[in-house]
């Protein structure tokens, strides 16, 4: 391997390009974006392991750029798919401002995975949330509200992760990665939930299907790659030795995501649920810990980025050429979009883990690790997720490319889109047919015994495929009658809206009541000061009306004595009421 000096962190290539792209025009800007992201691949591959760039960040020791096997893998695949996504953006009509936001997203993601300490990681983590939100917002329309919800949830997740990092610093006395994860008891819990937002833990996942179908089709290609995979990387840094509870959450994600995807009619919403499902395998691998499971998790990160971006590109071409996003409005497009149909087939077989495609290799490693460690419940969950994946993509492919006939005029994918899809489809096949090519990219996680193509493993893949086919035949008619299925966001979006409104109205009304009481009290005191005789007469009148001469005489005798004391008490009362109102409002 040829070594190069790490003169500057590679994310700077991309961030500088993000600034320059809007100034160069659409053609020149996209060309620069392709070159800047592509340059990250050889740079990340050739920089020797152990190279790092120490610095001070906010007055603390930090490592702005650190290279090991894990950051190297993330850098290589992030750079490669970033260049393909920029090319696809240009071919799909994205403007230079959108691509500038996308490059900012890519650059901040690279900053997070090349960070050598927790402080640098959280800085780029939060910047990644900002740049991805801007990428969503740029499209306008429905993407604006979705982007707001996306930003809000990721803000909560980032705050929890920051809390974990501060807690770790208090316990360990350093922000630097130590190889032991986060110190203490509280920090790992906060980190698991905070990072759980990014990877799509069940209950924290609804931003995925809510956001990714909304923006420009090219923006979805970027979005499907960086946030969740950076989350998996962060989860590994927090739990390098694994955590069984996280592994089981990964298994549940695999099943839940695949099940929800099967019920969707919107193509990009279906694909978004499958991000959660496939990230579940990665989270399960990280949670299991050990050499084989960790290698499988990061192998699946690498493979998933390839086939998931390819799936979004193929579906994007369908939307680009037809203007339709729902399955019921499409059909028979394999005749009009033949290369797109083939690319979809490659990606679908890859994500489903069919023998001969890259998903079969990495998914099998995670399944093999669960089986060898005798976590049978987790193993069955991951297998069930595999059946659901086959079902979902049989459904998607059937209704888009085979069933029926789309009436409109459809032109084939343009040259740029074809080049982008072919460039990603090829490694999906190569890495599946020749697994050593994938193993060469994986970080050194220790020794493990694993053979990809065994009779049992191939049979397992074929059985899952057969179950998927049979299941679709049985479920095709019931599934066609399913409408939009609500998710947990239907609860917390409404709860957040109406709860916030109730809080605002309650505080406002309470403030108004206090204000009325203060005004009334102040008016009474002011009246007494201006007209003490009138006040005396009124008090005496009260006694007369009540038939109580003693009360009237006592009132007259005490008026002069108590007037000043009463005035002081009233002032104290008014001041107290004002303080209460201020506290309630603040």
From TrEMBL:
Can you provide one Gene Ontology molecular function annotated for this UniProt record?
NADH dehydrogenase (ubiquinone) activity
Q: Which GO terms describe its cellular component?
A: plasma membrane
A Pfam family the protein falls into: Proton_antipo_M
Question: InterPro entries, alphabetically?
Answer: ComplexI-like_HydComp, NADH_UbQ_OxRdtase, ND/Mrp_TM
Q: Does the keyword Electron transport apply?
A: no
Q: What is its main location?
A: membrane
Mode of membrane association: Multi-pass membrane protein
Using the record's annotation, list all stretches that form the NADH:quinone oxidoreductase/Mrp antiporter transmembrane domain.
Answer: 115-381
Q: Where in the cell is it found?
A: Cell membrane
Stretches that traverse the bilayer:
6-24, 31-49, 69-88, 100-116, 122-139, 151-170, 182-204, 216-239, 245-263, 279-299, 305-323, 335-357, 377-398, 419-442, 454-475, 565-585
Q: Which UniProt keywords apply?
A: Cell membrane, Membrane, Oxidoreductase, Transmembrane, Transmembrane helix
The keyword Membrane belongs to this UniProt entry's keyword annotation: yes
- One Gene Ontology biological process: ATP synthesis coupled electron transport
Q: What is this protein called?
A: Na(+)/H(+) antiporter subunit D
The opening ranks of the lineage are:
Archaea, Methanobacteriati, Methanobacteriota, Stenosarchaea group, Halobacteria
